[in-house]
């Protein structure tokens, strides 16, 4: 599996037959395509954040949830690629949480 975040989770929204229109900043996008796979991604060339991408071969817009600046009215519907998750991943709901960086 190709990791794109360096972490266990990456929250995305999928919009089949969606359209992607950039209002500003398109010139700052970087693009990567792994030549031996269908994997591709857009990213900010300034900060490297993953950005939305239109996947033409699948006719789908993939929107990283972290790009959104509003709350969502939907809830997660699925976890994918669970056969390669870490053995510690299932116990995260039982761990201590912090609203901010602990001191």
TrEMBL record:
Residues 4-83 form the CENP-V/GFA domain. InterPro entries: CENP-V/GFA, Mss4-like_sf. Keywords: Metal-binding, Zinc. Pfam families: GFA. Belongs to the Gfa family. This is GFA family protein.
